[in-house]
Each structure stands twice: as C-alpha cells, then as structure tokens.
Amino acid sequence: MCVYRPLGFTSSQNDVAGEIFWGEKKLIDMSLTLCKTVLMNPKMQELPRLSSKEKVILELLATNGSMYGLQLVSQSHGNLKRGTVYVTLGRMEEKGLIVSEAEKFSDDSGLVPRRMYRPTPFGLRVLEIWMQLEQKFAWETG
Asked: Which of 106, 110, 113, 122 is a good FRET partner for 51, with 20 to 30 A between their CA atoms?
C-alpha cells in the first residue's frame, strides 16, 4: 500500500479520498499521483529527486521532443554546460527518466550518429509532479 504524508502531518488531521487537509485549508492533493509514480518504477520506493539540471532537461525534452546533448545545451540559455550535460543525461537514463537511441540516417552518408534523447512516460510524470509541488509550495507574494 502506498501512503503519502507531508511533513508535520498527524493522524488528527483529515485525510478524505486522497485529499490532505491542514485544518480547513487543503494542503495538497497528490497522494494518488505520488503512489502512481512510485508504482511506475518498481525499484523506486519514493519520489525521485530532480536536480535543477535534470528538471531543465526534462522540460526541454517534454516541450521539444527528441533532442541531442548539444541541442539541449544551446536551448537551455546557459543553464546547461557542455561538460556536464552528458553525465547528467547518463544519470537520468539510469533513473528511467529518459531513453536514448542513435540517430537514424536515411542514407550511407558516413556521418557519426548522435544520441537522441527523449523523456519516458515515467520521466514526464515525475516532471509533472515536481511542477505541481513547486506551485503548491511557492511563496505567495502580494
């Protein structure tokens, strides 16, 4: 059974149909989402962590589709560096967030194929959850 409780959650607070409340204010409604994400990758026992670089990569891949490493660097507006992008991509592939395959050419051009990266359904789900968490825990201004 998969159960999610935010920090500070006690049994005295209400937990109704997957919605978590703190007093009268709804704190977070993601227990089922988190459970589904964990169940998509059976080796994982908790929500995977995303570094800022991993989040940038997943956002770019989710928006633009398949890309190769240096494309990611150029599209990141300085958030990714050439020296670290491939290490990060390798780590993300091990986590199951992305997959890669050699670029396919239609002819025998003799060019060396690039590795094309794309997000997995699991990676897209993790990105979605992290974006929801950022919205839920964003500082209120005004």
From this structure: 113
